[in-house]
Design brief:
By secondary structure, this protein is an alpha+beta fold. The chain has one helix at 36-49; strands spanning 5-6, 13-16, 20-25, 28-32, 60-61, 64-65. The longest helix is centred in the middle third of the chain and has 14 residues, at 36-49. The chain starts with a strand and ends in a 6-residue tail after the last strand.
Amino acid sequence: KQGWRQNPYEPCLFSKGKERFILVYVDDILIVAPTKEEIANIKSNLSQMFPIKDFGEVNEYFGVESPWHLP
């Protein structure tokens, strides 16, 4: 829905274009997009379809430290 495509090789990975990704693992979701505004829009759209909780920016995911720092 909304232009998201499920990856045929990794069913828990969804993409929209080449710079927007949603990774789902059980009840955790990781959203990757070029700007904080786009991430906020994605979260807003998801919250209209599902109850979600926002735990803020990711520092670590599956034991891997996140090097991402958005402007």
